[in-house]
Amino acid sequence: MTGLVTKILKFSLVDGPGNRTVIFLQGCNMVCLNCHNPHTINRCRHCGECVSLCPNKALALHGGEGEGAKGSGQEVIHLANRCRDCDLCVASCPHNSTPKARLMDVSEVLAIIKQTSPFIAGITVSGGECTTQAEFVRELFTQVKAETNLNTFIDSNGNTDPKAWDRLMPVTDGVMLDCKAWDPDTHRLLTGSDIQAIKTSIIHLVSLDKLYEVRHLVIPGFTDDETHLRSMVAFLAATNPQIRLVLQRFRNHGVRGPLAGHPSPSQELMLRFAQVAREARLREIRIR
Ligand code: SF4
Ligand code: SF4
C-alpha cells in the first residue's frame, strides 16, 4: 500500500512524547488561514507552473500534449538527486501544493523508521491531515507495531469521521488534536469547516481513551475572546478533566494570505488564558 508523503523528519522533539520520527502526508480537508505548511493542503495538479522556476533543473514535465506543454495527461516529475531543497517551487505554487511529495510504499517508510528506531520513542504521522489517508496510516502503524517497539501517534485537525478513528485506534497509541477556534463562526472563517466534527472527535477519542492532548491556537483578534475559551475548557472538563490542554501561540512563520505578518499573542494574554483553563480544573495545561 502506498501513501503520498510530503516529508519525513527523522527526529523531532515537538510532535508528541519524546524524540520522534515524523511522517508528513500530503493533502488536507481544511484550508486554514493560519496554516504553517500551506503547501501540504492540496495534491499537485501537475499544472507545470513551477517547472521552469527550478534553478537546478530538478523538475521535469512529462506527457500531455508534449514536453513543456500544459494540459491534461501531463505529469510533473521531481528529480530528487538534483534537488537542493531551496523550495522555490513550493513557494511559487499557486495551488497550495508541492511537486516534491511522492508516493511511498509502507515498506519504504518502515525501512526509514527502522534506521532511526534506536534513537526514538515513537513515530508521529502528521500532515496536511493524515487521516485523509487513513488506510495507509493504519497499515504503516500495523507494520510498526509488528516489527518495532515504537509507539504510534497521530497529529490531526480533528475533522475525521468516527468510523475512520475506529479503524485507526487499534494500532494507535495517542492522538494530538488541534482546535483552531471554539466559536463556530470563527472556526469556519479560519478553517472553512464546521466545528462540530472536531467536538465529535474529542468525545469519541476520549471514549476510546486515545486523546493525548488538545491544542488550542491563540490568534490575536480571532481566538483571544475569553468567553469562548471558558466555553471550550468547560466542554473539555465535562468530557474528561484528565484532558491535557496545550495553549499554542500563533506564529506567522510560513503563513500565506491574510494572516501573513499577523502578530503573535502577548505573554500576558497566554498566561491569562492558562489561568482561565486552570480554573476549569483540567489536569494539565501547557503554553507553547
Ligand atoms: S506543485 Fe503547484 S505549480 Fe507545481 S505542478 Fe504542482 S500544482 Fe502546479
Ligand atoms: S526545492 Fe528542489 S525542485 Fe524545488 S525549486 Fe528548489 S531545487 Fe528545484
Protein described:
The structure is a single chain. The chain has 288 residues and is of the alpha/beta class. A nine-stranded mixed β-sheet has the order 5-1-2-6-7-8-9-10-11. Strands 3-4 form a two-stranded antiparallel sheet. It folds into two domains: 2-39 and 101-287, Alpha-Beta Barrel (TIM Barrel), CATH 3.20.20; 44-92, Alpha-Beta Plaits. Helices cover 29% and strands 23% of the residues. 40% of the residues are buried. One iron/sulfur cluster (SF4) is lined by residues 54, 56, 58-59, 78, 83-89. One iron/sulfur cluster binds at residues 54, 56, 58-59, 78, 83-89.
Low-pLDDT runs of 5+ residues are: 66-70
The main pleated sheet reads as:
9 strands, mixed
The run of helices and strands is EEEEHEHEHEHEHHEHEHE
The shape is globular
The CATH level-2 architecture of the largest domain is identified as: Alpha-Beta Barrel
Give the terminus-to-terminus CA distance.
36 Å
Approximate helicity band: 25-40%
Q: Mean of the pLDDT scores? A: 93
Question: In percent terms, what proportion of residues is strand?
Answer: 15-25%
Give the full name of the CATH homologous superfamily of the largest domain.
Aldolase class I
* Total domain modules: 2
Number of strands: 11
Rg of Cα set? 20 Å
The small-molecule ligands in this entry are:
iron/sulfur cluster
Say what the CATH topology of the largest domain is: TIM Barrel
Please report the first level of CATH classification, the CATH class of the largest domain: Alpha Beta
Question: In which order are the strands of the major sheet placed?
Answer: 5-1-2-6-7-8-9-10-11
